[in-house]
């Protein structure tokens, strides 16, 4: 279940605790209330298998690191129970230590804290959270099925902190901790435990398959009284299905939304004694299920296998969808009739279970309503725009190419822009203070007039421009004070997008987003950013970047319509952005940044599917940006992604400058760009904006020197890892002043080296 609470209770409790306004007891009381509410909601709706330990204060992968005592030495761990403040220091850093590395959870927009291991790593039970929450549910009258991230996936998600080594070599040391947890759960009365091994949807080598066999054979022997439901999700197991079915577990959960072909294979390949959990309700998207279509193959499967060994489930955790559609009272009623959030998806599950068990006539009303909604959606004029589809079908290859190769463009841009070596800039957004958020809320409620709100935003923008000039940044940004979210802001100005008021989902920690819903053909009725970019540029003689969110990221961070291919939707968004880019250029904006942090995230999980995705994703980015003159410099930004395996495609995007996250990884990510000999310019992040800690000048210089060991100095830009929206002005002030000083030191050093070499 979503862990955040219907009214974002967890967010506010966390931020109150972090700010010192409340204590740990108050935070844990909110957490307990949310867990109890989730269990009660599921029970009242008729869900028969209720999970526990699906709640987390920050991240379920970090929870496992705490459970097994995998706490890096920098956080002062001395063994024993992991204190709450240590847990949060690992997640987000503090004034004394940086946060652990963070990256995307498979191909979702959820971020997990990357486990860090030493070659001599030792594990011990350091958190009893799974046992405590099972006991907590039982005391409230709920017999639950505890959920654990599996040891093989956990190790594969981690990395060595003292050099590269195969993390699976730690398996023998890790398994005893898992066995202790399983034995204690069994002693408390647990009958089933769900163990998630989503690594099964990846391309696994023989070592990983051997690790899975060893793990579950060990569990079967050590805890024979406990039944294990092995869960996979986010794709089709393909060649991993047979090995998964051969594991000695009592049940297997499969994602049949993304891997529908697996159902036919189960008829022939699944052992008759295996309980099969069929993930037929989409846990990743918000569209109402077409119950009739789902029931047809399920009825055949039940007839062949028998109902007693089948469970009906979401495809994956409902962490990735909002809590309750009933909270949306202002959304278009027609669109609302096509949607289902977590609460509604549980209702769909219960309806399917009843239809399979006691017959369709017991839930005929729900099935008929599903049929009517699907038919209305297919026919709706709100969904289809012939002009948009005609334009998208007319895209030609020359529309995805810059006029000249980068080498020629670079000379023209350097002459036109006249920037120093190690040019400094930021990624785009500045702090969204409580004053900014209040002004926006007041304007939305009518308490602040449009003219007063516009005046407020102009004053904030001018203040940001003046401050950037004062500290000596080279390329400025307008601060994005008018923007609520980097996708929502654009989606609100495009046709084919819809928005919720309460459709929050967790991105990481207390950072929640409300993904837009792309329900129809996408186009741009009018310019979206030109006014603000032009206003900011009019305030200064320095260069101001135009700031856009790229088509792939807008696609990935939205709930996307499922009635046409995703590539088609992305092409429509790219054409809308192409119009915006050309209008920015015409308005005198000479640097335009098109952020694509989600391009790696969208990569299919199995390599056989990569080429097709990368082809249309790269073309969409280029379609958005390639209509400009050679002297217009195109930037892009990507964060918290591993690039080694797609570096050729990043090069093919042909952005003039790319900025990336490198401070947490201490410039490791640059290895991909140097081994590939990336020809364009790069801004390796020197300031981790997800931590409240302000890095020193010396730390930033050290990172830049590492970058200069890998890249030519004239190829390097200096910038933070990401936008500064979530930070305070105090933190931003000191960090950016230090960043400018670091860039100046690098210029001095390299100027001296140049003189010495002459």
Strand order of the largest sheet: 1-5-7-8-9-10-11
Which regions have little confidence, pLDDT < 50, spanning 5+ residues? none
Sheet-strand content, in percent, reads 5-15%
Cα radius of gyration in angstroms = 26 Å
- Which structural class best describes the helix and strand composition? alpha/beta
The mean pLDDT is 94
Number of helices, where a helix is a run of at least 4 consecutive DSSP H or I residues? 27
Terminal CA distance? 65 Å
Portion in helices: 40-55%
Largest sheet: 7 strands, parallel
Approximate shape: globular
**Can you count the beta strands?**
22
Topology:
Layout: H1 9-18, H2 24-45, E1 50-52, H3 60-67, H4 84-92, E2 102-104, E3 111-113, E4 116-117, H5 129-139, E5 144-149, H6 151-157, E6 159-160, H7 171-188, E7 192-196, H8 206-222, E8 227-231, H9 241-245, E9 251-255, H10 262-269, E10 275-281, H11 291-305, E11 310-314, H12 333-336, H13 342-357, H14 364-379, H15 386-393, H16 406-417, H17 434-445, H18 450-471, E12 475-476, H19 488-491, E13 495-498, E14 505-508, E15 511-513, E16 517-523, H20 530-538, E17 543-549, H21 551-556, E18 559-560, H22 566-586, E19 591-595, H23 610-625, E20 633-638, H24 647-653, E21 657-660, H25 670-675, E22 681-684, H26 697-710, H27 729-757
Parallel strand pairs: 1-5, 4-6, 5-7, 7-8, 8-9, 9-10, 10-11, 12-17, 16-18, 17-19, 19-20, 20-21, 21-22
Antiparallel strand pairs: 2-3, 13-16, 14-15
Helix pairs in contact: 1-2, 5-7, 7-8, 11-13, 15-22, 17-18, 22-23, 23-24, 26-27
């Amino acid at each position: 279940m979503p862990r955040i609470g219907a009214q974002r209770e967890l967010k506010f409790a966390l931020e109150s605790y972090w700010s010192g306004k409340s204590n740990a007891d108050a935070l844990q009381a909110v957490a307990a209330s949310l867990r109890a509410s989730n269990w009660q909601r599921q029970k009242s709706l008729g869900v028969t298998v209720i999970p526990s330990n699906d709640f987390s204060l920050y991240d379920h992968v970090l929870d496992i690191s705490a459970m097994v005592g995998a706490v890096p030495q920098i956080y002062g761990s001395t063994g024993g129970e992991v204190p709450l403040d240590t847990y949060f220091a690992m997640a987000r850093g503090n004034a004394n230590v940086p946060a652990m590395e963070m990256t995307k959870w498979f191909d979702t927009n959820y971020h997990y804290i990357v486990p860090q291991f030493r070659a001599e790593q030792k594990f011990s039970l350091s958190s009893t959270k799974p046992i405590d929450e099972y006991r907590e549910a039982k005391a409230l009258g709920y017999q639950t099925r505890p959920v654990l991230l599996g040891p093989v996936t956990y190790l594969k998600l981690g990395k060595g902190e003292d050099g590269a080594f195969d993390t699976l070599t730690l398996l023998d040391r890790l398994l005893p901790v898992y066995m202790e947890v399983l034995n204690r759960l069994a002693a408390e009365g647990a009958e089933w435990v769900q163990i998630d091994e989503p690594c099964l949807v990846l391309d696994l080598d023989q070592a990983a398959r051997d690790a899975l066999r060893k793990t579950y054979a060990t569990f079967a022997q050590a805890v024979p009284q406990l039944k294990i439901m092995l869960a996979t999700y986010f794709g089709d197991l393909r060649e991993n299905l047979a090995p998964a079915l051969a594991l000695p577990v009592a049940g297997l959960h499969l994602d049949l939304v993304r891997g529908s072909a697996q159902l036919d294979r189960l008829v022939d390949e699944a052992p008759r004694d295996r309980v099969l959990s069929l993930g037929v309700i989409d846990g990743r998207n918000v569209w109402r299920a077409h119950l009739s279509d789902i029931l047809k193959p399920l009825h055949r499967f039940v007839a062949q296998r028998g109902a007693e060994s089948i469970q009906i489930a979401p495809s994956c955790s409902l962490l990735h969808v909002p809590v309750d559609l009933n909270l949306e009272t202002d959304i278009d009623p027609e669109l609302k009739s096509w949607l289902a959030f977590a609460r509604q998806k549980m209702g769909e599950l219960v309806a399917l279970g009843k239809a399979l068990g006691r017959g369709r006539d017991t839930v005929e009303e729900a099935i008929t309503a599903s049929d009517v909604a699907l038919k209305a959606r297919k026919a709706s004029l709100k969904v289809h725009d012939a002009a948009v589809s005609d334009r998208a079908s007319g895209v030609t290859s020359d529309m995805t190419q810059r006029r000249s190769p980068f080498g020629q463009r670079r000379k023209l841009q350097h002459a036109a822009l006249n920037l120093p070596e190690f040019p400094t800039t930021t990624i785009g957004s500045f702090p969204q203070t409580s004053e900014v958020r209040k002004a926006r809320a007041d304007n939305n409620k009518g308490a602040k007039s449009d003219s007063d709100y516009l005046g407020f935003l102009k004053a904030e923008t001018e203040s940001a421009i003046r401050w950037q000039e004062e500290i000596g940044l080279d390329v400025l940004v307008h601060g994005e004070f008018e923007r609520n979210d980097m996708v929502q802001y654009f989606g609100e100005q495009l046709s084919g997008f819809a928005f919720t008021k309460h459709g929050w989902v967790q991105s990481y920690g207390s950072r929640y987003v409300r993904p837009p819903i792309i329900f129809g053909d996408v186009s741009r009725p009018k310019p979206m950013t030109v006014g603000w970019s032009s206003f900011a540029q009019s305030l200064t003689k320095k260069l101001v970047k135009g700031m856009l969110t790229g088509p792939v990221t807008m696609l990935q961070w939205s709930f996307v319509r499922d009635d046409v291919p995703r590539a088609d939707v992305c092409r429509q968004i790219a054409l809308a952005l192409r119009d915006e880019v050309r209008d920015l250029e015409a308005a005198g904006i000479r640097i335009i940044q098109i952020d694509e942090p989600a391009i790696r995230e969208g990569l299919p999980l199995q390599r056989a599917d990569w080429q097709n995705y990368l082809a249309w994703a790269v073309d969409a980015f280029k379609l958005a940006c390639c209509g400009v003159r050679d002297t217009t410099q195109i930037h892009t930004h990507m964060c918290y992604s591993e690039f080694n395996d797609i570096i050729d495609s990043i090069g093919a995007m042909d952005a003039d400058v790319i900025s990336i996250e490198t401070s947490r990884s201490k410039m490791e990510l640059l290895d991909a760009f140097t081994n590939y000999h990336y020809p364009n310019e790069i801004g390796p992040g020197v300031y981790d904006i997800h931590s409240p800690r302000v890095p020193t000048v010396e730390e930033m210089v050290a990172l830049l020197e590492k970058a200069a060991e890998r890249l030519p100095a004239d190829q390097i830009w200096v910038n933070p890892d990401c936008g500064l929206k979530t930070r305070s002005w105090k933190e931003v002030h000191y960090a950016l002043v230090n960043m400018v000083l670091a860039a100046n030191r690098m210029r001095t050093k390299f100027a001296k080296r140049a003189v010495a070499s002459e």
